Queue: 3 jobs
Job 1
Amino acid sequence: MIQPGDLIASLGSWLRGFLLSLGLAPGLVSVGLGLLPAILLPLIGLMMAIPLIWLERKWVARLQDRIGPNRVGPFGIFQVFADMVKIFTKEDLIPQGADKIIFSLAPVLAIAGVVGIWAVLPFAADVYGVNLDVGVLYVIAVGTFGTLAILLAGWSSNNKYALLGAYRAVAQLITYEVPMVLTLLVPVLLAGSMGLNDIVRAQDSGWFVLLAPLAAIIFMIAAQAEVGRAPFDLLEAESELVAGFNIEYSGMKFGFFYVAEFLHSFTFGALGAAFFLGGWLGPGSERFPILGVLYFLIKSLAVYFVFVWTRGTFPRVRIDQMINLSWKLLTPTALGLVALMAVAERATQGTPPLVHALVLLAANLFVLFFALLVMRSMSRAARERLASRQAGSGSGMVAVGGSRAPAGAASALRD
Amino acid sequence: MSLAQVLFLIVAAVGLLSGLMVVTVRNLLHAALWLIVALFSVAVLFAMLNAGFLAVVQVVVYIGAIAILIIFAIMLTRREALRAGAQENRLWPVAGVLCALVFLGLAWSASRLPGAQSGPAQLPGSDALVALGTALVSPDQYVVPFEVASVLLLAALIGSVVIAGDRLRSR
């Protein structure tokens, strides 16, 4: 009798019995069944990139009042396949003076840094690669390979624009890793575990986005910067760097970076869904894992849509503004939030869930209010300094800086 | 020989060989990359010994922070990386003998440790992580070394800010 709850497990036991009946050694069958998800998960992940690229191009086009791809197939859904054929047939160039091995290694590392995260993503109650007890740390650790890939790509290309792009990219990635790690401490704190599936399970009584909205916001901003997309796409600022770290790449090697970027954005959407939106939790998801997968996919796409929305809406910020935003606003805010959340969580232990949730929410709002207050005073000071400097130099220009608070705060802290 | 032993031998061989490559390879950036391979194989060894936390921290700290810092330094001083001097001086036999002695001493004392002859300890999953966490903050265990290390790191952090800030101001 097959229980609906453990479809994957019963599939696995059926496959094991089938392979054993073929006369294979039991040890070999175990190794093969262990390897199967390790092969399937990256494949599913990479296949996800095909609809994602089409979806994102359509979304961004609509946000910018364009139509987007609409020539190949209905609604242009076969555009990605046409692009794939084109990219496969392109010449694979390696520039003169490039470090050939590293040049070819970098795209592989870029993909590995993204697909590695899929090993710990909890798709449903019992559908996941592995429920590592250090899952959150593992996500951070795998992410460093993406950083390494960009650094190596920029260096091995023997091109100064690529190298400049790589320097910027690594400065950005290292900078935004700090608030990212700090905010990920909040779900870990609330769940009492670092395993992703345990964190999802702990949100049964309430999604963490309701308990810690500020942590979710900081996570979103840091994730957008980690992926390196607008408004934080400094690493490939066309007007300054031609194309950034991947300028010398052509054909499938460029395709690797392209796919890695799209998949990375969606993977952060999935992580956001797991950390803050309750992952696969929903009515009936324990009994029917397929429902859990559906919920997880919908929530991931919702978070992913916010990333795409941000990308399609905001203009690019300057590099100093971007670095300042992280070090001088997001990092202190995240630090304060983690400290306050730890105290609030401990203080409300044993109280009814509603009181618990309200106290945590109040702590978040307090930190948010305080951060906004500091930001406002800093941007005001920046505007005054700018105005007095311009009045002194007699240029007669109107001070335009500081109309948006983060930009103003950033320029206030510059000197 | 079991599968775990074969895997251990492969990973150990990769670690040792890449360690050798770090010191023999001419290109400084390649040396840094081989260092990453060596550090990563140590992380794999940790993971195989049921120490998942140590494995992940090894990757985060050594590959994510230190190796990237080294690569950054090499890239910013690109001319130094091309210097082609001799890779050893006339004292290398002495150094070799010293290293061999240290290795023998370490191997002997490691083989005398309790549990050196048995396989990897069977740690109970996430309970080990919880035990590590509570051990670091419980007063009858490691809270004092932990706090001393924290204060030291904080002092280093403030010191680096002061040094960098001074340079900015005098410019």
Job 2
Amino acid sequence: MAIRLFNPLTMDEPRKLGITLVMPSLIIVFGFLLFPFLYSFVLSLMNYDLARPRGNGFIGLGNYIHLTQDMYFLNSVVVTLVFSFCSVILEIILGVAIALVMNQDFKGRGILRALIIIPWALPSIVNASMWSWILNANYGALNALLSQLGILHGYRPWIADPSWAMVLIILTNVWKETPFTVIMVLAALQGIPTHLREAAVMDGAGAVRRFIHVVLPMIAQIVMICALLQVIWSLLHTFELVYVITRGGPFNSTDIIPMRIYWQTFKGLRFGYGAAMAYLAAIALLIPAVFYIRSAYKTTVE
Amino acid sequence: MRFVFKRFTFRVFLYVAALLIAVWVLAPYAWLIISSISTKIDLLNVPLKWIPSRPTLENYRSLFADGQSALSQGMSFFSRSMLNSIIVTFSSMGICMFFGVFTAYAVARLTFPGRKFYLMMLMGSYMMPPIAIVIPGYIILKSLHLLDSRIGLALVNITFILPLVVWIMRGFFLSIPLELEEAARIDGSSRLGALLRIILPLSVPGLVSAGVFCFIASWNEYFYAFLYTSMRARTLPVLIGEFTTKVGTDYLKMAAAGVVASAPPVLLALIFQRFLVRGLTEGAVKG
């Protein structure tokens, strides 16, 4: 009897079976994510310095108070917001534009649709290293190309220039992330019934009005989901791009939050302080995350 | 006449745009591949020669030949990293596919208390930025003596792959008509029997999609591997990062290693594109 009760192969009652099947992954999710996340909060209330363990212990909100006065951290917040905002705007505009082109009928469309997935599939560290090589001041392909085309006279150290460094980090991120938007929007475009478009043509609507009144409403939801995902990913999931290409420099101009946390925690060995930074950033990320969960839940359920 | 002209300019515009997109997507990766078969002399030449005068596989050969030591157990550092990548990827993939399929079935088909809450938790964990848990994770792995081990890294990878599998498979299960399952149950099959005999065979595209997603996510993962592994268990992405960030940057080796490391995910994505696109759109996930 006891065996029957706990044997999922014969168990048919949905409540019990459901809980049994979910249990292993529930344990994994709780054990590997929720527990560290709570542990992180505890750490953030402590002075946990591996280099100077003498003063370690509970310090309440000390780390958080320190954060509000840490100019490096405040700089990182601004840098991260600029990076994320510019990346997402470009990814969405470019993504929708490319998807509109690729939704047209032309020779080689199938090949182009296949190739667009390459940047998405590329390991992000390969993306970062590849661009670091292209942007290299002395031997990089960008300098070579621009000077051979006569646009540039003499090689430029792009990455050493604070404003160019940020622009280039954003552009390399856009190169890797835009194909995701293209793929999602293209799928949505193909879902638009042709009779809708034809009806609009019959009514004498031009291309611009057709886009605004017929196409845009049909892809609005998917564009929204893409934008939210890109915001979430660009805010706190980006690391290797900056780590490899600029290491946060020059003059902290590309010092995004994950970089700052990395320096403080794994180079400065101030685990408590790093945890406070990470915790604050993760809580802030909840805002776009909640919006994403709601819209993704809606699209996949309905 | 005016209409024909307008049509013609539109076609021209379309092909120019398509060409620009193709160049934009391909040029950087093509340059990585060209660099990997070039010699230092060609690449350091000013003005730069875009086509190598003497293409060579020397960079690839040196990856597999250089750096044998006791630390990497007689293999080159590169081979060792590749082996680590393969072991970590396939073990975390196997675990996630096994548990993920059952969990996805439960949240797609069964009503049980806390189902909605669990789904929300799962999505939350999918979006959890690694940076938020990487510090306690480090302390936990250290106390378990799992730093710089394949097992430790495989366990960590499960945290972001499992939610992905559940979310993608749930989308596929929802699209399978309920009647099929009910018919099997009337014939005396248990729920899990119906899942294994009726639903899974119909979900092969979903399984392929989830499997490829798992592979790419785990194979490409850098951040955890970078922080949690070193000489013994470092994966290919970590080694590639070292070619460009450590003293004595070696772009030629980086290019060759980058091509080798990116070949499996890129080829899989090209081959299974249809499945991946369906997984992306149905699950509304980023991969």
Job 3
Amino acid sequence: MVVETITDGGVLYGLLAVGAGLATGLAGIGAGVGEQGIGAAVVGVVAEEPGFLGKGLFLMLLPETLIIFGLAVSLILMFAWKPFA
Amino acid sequence: MLRPVEMSRVVVAGSNKVLEPLIEKLHELNLLHVVNYSGADDAFNMGKPLGTASGYAEQLIRLRSIERYLDISDKMPDKQFPESQVLSQMDGILGSVGDDVIATAERVAEIDNEVKIKQDQAKVLKPLAGLPLDLELLYGYNSLAAYVGTVASPVEADVSRISYVNEVFTASTGKTNAVAVFVPVEKAGEVSGVLAEHGFSEISVPRGPTGSIAGAISTLESDAKRLEGDKAPLQKNLKEIRAQHEDLILAIDEHLSIKSQKAESPLRFASTDNAFVIDGWLPTDQYETLKRELESAAGGRVQVETLDGSEADKLVETGEDIPTKLNNPGIVRPYELITRLFAIPEYKEFDPTLPIFIFFPLMFGLILGDVAYGLIILIMMFMLKRKFRTPGWQSLINIVIIASIWAIIFGFIFGEIFGPMGLWDYIFSGAHHAGILGTVADPHHVGTAFGEGFYGRLGRVGPEIGSFAGGVFPMYRLATASVLVLIGVSLFIGVVHTGIGSILGVKNELAYGEKRHAYFERLPVLLFQVFFGLGLLGLIVGGLSHPLVLLSALVVVISIIMMVKGPEGVMGATHIPFFVSNLISYLRLLAIGLASVGVAFAANQLAFYVLMPMLSGGEGKPLTTIAIVVGIVVLIVVHFINLLLGILSPFMHPLRLHYVEMFTKFYSAHGGGVEYSPFGRVRRFLRD
């Protein structure tokens, strides 16, 4: 049974999907943790100096690329990589 | 367009006798960006304000306080007034109307204060309401100590134990137990200790009201109500004054501001006992106008000169900023808002507004890409445009209007009206999709997996339709092949976008005369990113041995060597991960879009293929009323939320792509510039 499923690729495709989900999800957590500190600091600065908004936004959005890395990995896992084909 | 307006440095010198007509003229022309005199030169002093300055300042202060009481703030004008009307009505507004406003507003504040005091007193007395004592009996004894407040448990027994002579009154209302304890002064210390054990918390009895406590409370409350009633007509009066005079008051404000700006302007000029010198910048093509107008205003007793390039450069080297006047055609101008939000470009830098105008709406459209969402946003923005008329809001709304048109265009390319595989198919290819209301032959085949549907696992873009390009339109974004195509498109946009940034960066550095920075810091980044992208393309098309891959690898290595040779040395090469991540970052164009398509898709599936058949008692049965109602409610709620997110994230993420990925290549490396703000004022409430 189990052997059949594995050769069928079913379980492995499932694991692939789990891996893809983890890649995006964990990257998202990472980006969030990174942004929380920056966000708090930027809000503080902007409260004192509204002209800083643009530059603050710039700094705030820097870690957001992290989640895109995770997503890129997920996309490769889900769509581009065909190990069992 | 990519460059700010060309500026010239001008010096205006003349006799103090012509200072006033000259100031009038300068203000009227609204051309000269005045450089404030720093006081560094011994031969010159700072000018003195004209004699009228303090008078205008006083009037302005009084007017501003009237504005504050009437709650008037700057707005777009509904009416305009000729100067003569402003002058004739100014005394009335500042005088009798102003007195009325200030007296009324102060009376309102007084009433507010009294009401608050009375309400506080009533609130304090509430717990004591049941005590059988008049208020004036609760305080004011010489030989007795009085304790009034609340306790947690009965205190009579303990108080009697300590002081044989005592008087204790109690009353319970709800959960609070009020007590009034009277004991001889000499027992006060001990009694207060006992009371503390019973959780006594003192209430300080307000001194004003008299009579029974319950009566006092109701008097206080009715007084407060009566005062509130008195306040209403006063506030109505203020509102009426405001409605009647709002625009006039703002016109007077404008008039006085202009007068006081003119009267105080000599503080910014250099002057001697008999003469003055005004320094400033203005657009080069306006120089002749300025010279002619000033000379005629001063009857020839003024000298207007422009400094030639090298003299101006010398001033810039000593720290004077050349003001930047952005120069964009009307349709591009709203996007200056995005530039300004980051920083005003320096005079010698490129103005990034034009590339933003090209790429920002494109990216917004690519991410949102839905005909219906785009239309809704477009209509909403046209409605808001009439409501929010300040320049900032107008720019923002115009930005979104242009962007939403792109969203509609991409909506057609992606085949999305409220998400994919829904209304689009119903409208444009009825053959498949009577199915939108659940009567399709095989509804289970729709949406059991992402990308699986009427068009097979690969969607329209794929072998099932025929050749790769054959079935591109409409390309359902959730289909696997579309995802792959969009990855490519996103990266391509990234290469072009950052490439433009890098080219501007090279030219910027050359404009500042920094050749080494231009060729060994900016140029290799351009080469690296372009050929990194090309290499990826070659890798996908032909594998590792594809000639494009080999060429790209070579150029990438060369660019890295150039970076190492650059001004930062080996440290220059440490930025490479940043450049790679710059490109990958453009995948968000695909990713954010997919997220919103996913939500829309899920909403449609949930409503049409799960909820509505379920509530109608199974597939294929005619829909019941409740099924239709529930289905529509679910659709509206989910699509509404998705639309809100669909305005926010397609706006924020392209913004980030500009600020982080593009601007870092060329912009603001030398610090922000100074905006051109000429001496003068655009009249808004005043009419000639």
